[in-house]
Amino acid sequence: MAPGDLQEVLAVLKPGGTPPPTDLLVGLGAADDAAVYRLAPDLAIVETVDFFPPVVDDPWTWGAVAAVNAMSDVYAMGGEVLFALAVAGFPREMSKTIVSDVFRGGRDKVAEAGGVIAGGHTVVDAEPKYGLCVTGRVHPDRILVKGGLRPGDRVFLSKPLGTGVITTAAKNSVASPDVLAGAVTSMLRLNRVAAEVACEAGARGATDVTGFGLLGHAGEMVKASRAGLAIAASRLPLLPGVRALAEAGQWSGGMKRNRRWVESAFGADLQIDPAVPGYLASLLTESETSGGLLFSVTPERGERVIDAFRRRGEECWEIGSVLTEPVIRVKA
Question: For 251-304, how does the pLDDT look when each residue is reduced to its tens digit (9 = 90+)?
Fold first, then answer.
């Protein structure tokens, strides 16, 4: 679902006259990546769920990518993973070996995150689906939220864009093996390092870039923060091979839905420089699978972010800054 459709159907779940419990620190009141419930002054539980159909043919890789994608919401809140429950649906005739490989992929990535698969629920479904309900923990005073952008902050992205284009092209048999392998490597990378660095640098605003695309998730941050974003298109990291596939029209079904929401939600406050190439403007709203963290830190702590990523052997890109007015400006 596009962000606007999701907000519409979830409206019935928001409390009417009864206020939510005071220990529910993050719930349905404002769009965010996970729920957070305080158990003690120094401990809160982070809870999220995510699942989807296969994005690649290999069953282990599908299970692993789905697990990384689900756990990313815990990292987007500044938390660490504790355990997860598997949520799955498979056709009755599907090979048990394939199903086992899917579960094994999820298990391996949860173990890499320091957690464990503790149970789950599986049903028979004509279209296979797999994901996780993830439980994490975070200090109540150090939660990252979409509404944490502050004017003047520097904005960072921890993974390149393009997984949606490449996996769509792979389904259409037009993505080369090396290009698909690059996307898989990115999708399999946990956002744990990104969350650790963001928290160490004092970030308050963060989200992960997934199904709503970069501008869809950035737009939610702008709405929640009442502050704007200036994004430099030339600084955006792209996966190898994605430009050619994008120019060839290998878009997922979510790209146009995401674009319609952003354009409707912001109107004239969405300003994309005409000099931005067409393929790149469309890529801004393309759905991503297991994308990176988008977060901001104060100007004086920006260099600390890049250095911290390098020390941990990962990359990160500074892509823009936070504005005072709640607009989205994309310059060439």
Answer: 998 999 999 999 999 999 999 999 999 999 999 999 999 999 999 999 999 989
Q: What are the structure tokens assigned to 329, written together?
A: 């400006």
Instruction: Show the tokens assigned to 17.
Output: 């006259």
- Torsion 64-66-72-73 (CA) sign: negative
Which residue matches tokens 């699942």? Answer: 51
> 144-331 has which CATH code?
3.90.650.10
**Which residues touch 256 (CB under 8 Å, ≥6 apart)?**
285
3-state DSSP assignment of residue 242: helix
CATH number for the domain formed by residue range(s) 18-141: 3.30.1330.10
6: its two tokens: 């999701």
Cβ atoms of residues 166 and 180 within 8 Å: yes
Taking the C-alpha atoms of residue 296 and residue 305, their distance in angstroms, rounded to an integer, is: 10
User: What are the residue ranges spanned by the domains of the chain?
Assistant: 18-141, 144-331
pTM (2 decimals)? 0.94
